[in-house]
Predict the structure.
Amino acid sequence: MTKRASWIALSVGVIVLGGAIAGIAAYEHGGPGMGMHMRFEKMAVRLQLTSQQESQIKADLKQARTNARPEIESLRNLRATLAKQIFADRPDQAAIQKNADQLKQQLSAMIDQYVKAGQQINGVLTSEQRVEVQKIITEHQQLAERRRARWQEHRANPSGGRPSAAPDTPSHQ
């Protein structure tokens, strides 16, 4: 696998795993102004979590967010530095490669954190709740795909008004 392909695979992995855990943590995007607490409560009701499960999952998510916060800021800064290096008048290939490798390592560490958090949450759920989580993840992916398709339609025809795509609400509401 080429370096570029491995970079792309790693990026996609972070997005997919992050999306899955974000789907569990945030449970849909909700309406404007709907905070993370409200989304969590909505997910807790749908999964029929016990108070003990709710407490444990909240603690796991809080720990995951705490662990990820410095990594996210570091990734943001490293990506900005890398972009500046790539588009410099005289790009320094060695510096670009060094920062690209560092970015890959940080992305890999983030994937490990996402997997760990997901496994901790999975360990708290019953098999019936896991089935429901799979449904939530599928709905989240379908919602993202509808939004992506609508955005692509808008980009192809920006003056054509609002496209006639399906609304951004999951089918279970």
Q: What stands out?
A: The CA atoms of residues 79 and 103 lie 7 Å apart. DSSP finds five helices and no strands in the chain.
